[in-house]
Design a protein that fits this description.
two-stranded antiparallel sheet; rod-shaped; Flagellin; cell projection
């Protein structure tokens, strides 16, 4: 679990920027065209030791005797108690094997039986200590797990809120781009049908004006032609 959490913390990136390894407390994103139109994204170290408050996977706690000990996440007790338990177990098993061998050979086993009883009592006592210590450690570890979950949840909530804000900004910018495009279209583009109608109207008016001008120019010539066609009077 620790390796996977550290892998996620070390490999999560945005635009080649590490997000969850503690190298940055925040990143600033430009969300508008003008200066100052930025958004800060708060970041935290999401690696194992950071969220569980451990050092190299070990949590420093105070035991029942008031001594500070290191609890290794995933173990049922301190390494010292676990070692005592394993040693007592090995000693008891060795004594029990010696007793069984002596009985098989028909030897006097009274001393060995006392030794086995003593080893068994010591083993059971260490086992009880380990069990009690394991329960305490389990409580401590579960509390740390709850705190780690809260830490991760807070970071997720912050990133989720930032994501929503960025999505809102994206939608706003898209709407602004559409509105600007529409405004530019109304300014620069033309209505083809309306412009063709205006062109046809202007063309007809031009043709009518030319025809009227031609008609006006032809009327004097017509009068002169009529006058020239009249018979001329003889001079006296």
């Amino acid at each position: 679990m620790r390796q996977e959490i550290d892998r996620i913390g070390n490999s999560s990136q945005f635009n080649t920027i590490n997000l969850l390894d503690g190298s940055r407390n925040k990143i600033t994103l430009q969300v508008g065209a003008n200066a100052g139109q930025t958004m800060d994204v708060e970041l935290s170290d999401m690696r194992f030791d950071a969220i569980f408050k451990t050092t190299n996977g070990k949590l420093s706690v105070t035991d029942a005797n008031g001594q500070t000990v290191d609890v290794e996440m995933g173990l049922c007790g301190s390494q010292e108690t676990i070692k005592k338990y394993n040693d007592a177990k090995d000693a008891y098993n060795a004594a029990a094997n010696s007793l069984a061998l002596a009985k098989a050979k028909g030897q006097n086993t009274s001393a060995l039986e006392q030794e086995v009883a003593a080893k068994k009592a010591a083993f059971e006592k260490v086992g009880q200590d380990l069990n009690r210590e394991g329960q305490n450690y389990a409580t401590i570890v579960m509390n740390q797990v709850d705190k780690a979950i809260s830490t991760v949840s807070l970071q997720r909530a912050g990133l989720g809120a930032t994501q929503n804000a960025l999505q809102h900004t994206i939608n706003y910018l898209e709407n602004s781009a559409i509105n600007l495009s529409d405004a530019q279209s109304r300014i620069e583009d033309c209505d083809i049908a309306e412009e063709m109608m205006n062109f046809t109207k202007a063309n007809l008016m031009s043709q009518v004006a030319a025809a009227m001008l031609a008609q006006a120019n032809s009327e004097p010539n017509t009068v002169l032609t009529l006058l020239n066609s009249l018979p001329k009077a003889n001079a006296f």
